[in-house]
Amino acid sequence: MDVRAAVATKAGAPLTIETVQLEGPRAGEVLVEIKASGVCHTDLFTLSGDDPEGLFPAILGHEGAGVVVEVGAGVTTLKPGDHVIPLYTPECRTCSYCLSRKTNLCQAIRETQGRGVMPDGTSRFKMGGKEVLHYMGTSTFANYTVVPEIALAKIREDAPFEKVCYIGCGVTTGIGAVINTAKVEPGDNVIVFGLGGIGLNVIQGARMAGADMIVGVDINPAREALARKFGLTHFVNSNEVEGDLVQYLVGLTKGGADHTFECIGNVKLMRQALECAHKGWGKSTIIGVAGAGQEIATRPFQLVTGRVWQGSAFGGARGRTDVPKIVDWYMDGKINIDDLITHVMPIDKINDAFQLMKDGTSIRSVVTF
Ligand SMILES: NC(=O)C1=CN([C@@H]2O[C@H](COP(=O)(O)OP(=O)(O)OC[C@H]3O[C@@H](n4cnc5c(N)ncnc54)[C@H](OP(=O)(O)O)[C@@H]3O)[C@@H](O)[C@H]2O)C=CC1
Ligand SMILES: N[C@@H](CCC(=O)N[C@@H](CSC=O)C(=O)NCC(=O)O)C(=O)O
Ligand SMILES: [Zn+2]
Ligand SMILES: [Zn+2]
Fold this sequence. Notes:
Helix content: 25-40%
Pfam family, one: ADH_zinc_N
InterPro entries: ADH-like_C (IPR013149), ADH-like_N (IPR013154), ADH_3 (IPR014183), ADH_Zn_CS (IPR002328), ER (IPR020843), GroES-like_sf (IPR011032), NAD(P)-bd_dom_sf (IPR036291)
Keywords: Metal-binding, NAD, Oxidoreductase, Zinc
Number of strands: 17
Structural class: alpha/beta
Low-confidence stretches: none
CATH class of the largest domain: Alpha Beta
Bound molecules: NADPH dihydro-nicotinamide-adenine-dinucleotide phosphate, the ligand N[C@@H](CCC(=O)N[C@@H](CSC=O)C(=O)NCC(=O)O)C(=O)O, zinc ion
GO cellular component, one term: cytosol
Distance between the termini: 16 Å
Mean pLDDT: 98
GO molecular function: alcohol dehydrogenase (NAD+) activity; S-(hydroxymethyl)glutathione dehydrogenase (NAD+) activity; S-(hydroxymethyl)glutathione dehydrogenase (NADP+) activity; S-nitrosoglutathione reductase (NADH) activity; zinc ion binding
CATH superfamily of the largest domain: Medium-chain alcohol dehydrogenases, catalytic domain
Strand content: 15-25%
């Protein structure tokens, strides 16, 4: 079938809206009509060429929501008409990672996903007779896509696609990092570096967990007012701090934070986030994704003296199990998504969404089909 897609032809170039040929679902696969997709910083990161796994030409997008159109042979858990959110972290429930119960990083299809192909090693997308690659196993910047059954969360049918698509990455990543990975406890002090589409959800998660001080660090003063609505108690504009930022934050939290989160992807800030965690017990969780060749550094003494450095992918969430519950939280008014979706536009305007993100003007843009 012909589908409309925003194609990333090469690193650094704007996406182009194209008619692409999509083959139907093979065994274990599902054809999904994508109704809406958020644009995450990671899409921009991959498009920039900084992602060691970035491949072109490809159809980016990993924050979608839509409706099942057709299922391939052997698919038992989904049927046409079901509403779904594609998962870049699948949940097969049978691989050793899933069975360990120690991680959400299902590895059942990770290798082929990283090569931009379906689990059988081929792509379903073609343009002008040539293969176009999948991205993160989801490729949601197309009005139809094919996704493995194990990478689809079935959600309730009354949830609005234009809002709950954000649960496909940003919401789950931020709230999940607090609840599943860091396990923030009532009364904890928290510092969040980067108050964008992820960091604001970390703030929202910290408030849900009952944190006491919730400190946000950003260079964009426009982020303060919105962050306060989500639970921020102290805003720090790092450009305005005189002297050492780490010392300032340690002072503000009277010895360092119980938990810090890096939500930018900057290795220097990852170090600062670790070093303003409390001596003896502070935990620092890296969420931001850093480019090829970037490495983190600190004095080992920082760890010897009890700080813990860890990371979180997709908020430690097991998507098929947890995503439907997070959709319920939104529908029940327990979490706020609406105020974070600052722009909605048709897919034809997707390059505007990337520009708004680069300019620091948007929190989340959602494209519709
Ligand atoms: N681990 C995971 O599972 C996931 C990781 N990510 C990653 O998380 C990171 C954040 O994504 P997202 O929230 O969408 O990105 P955004 O661009 O929305 O947010 C980043 C924020 O950090 C601010 N910032 C930039 N530089 C600095 C600085 N030097 N000091 C303080 N603040 C700064 C930005 O300001 P300004 O707006 O002015 O630039 C912006 O407010 C990215 O690296 C993304 O790839 C995303 C999803 C999942
Ligand atoms: N491909 C990159 C790493 C990109 C990355 O870390 N992705 C996150 C999700 S970011 C979503 O917006 C993730 O889940 N990582 C786990 C994984 O298995 O990819 C690189 O090679 O550096
Ligand atoms: Zn993302
Ligand atoms: Zn698995």
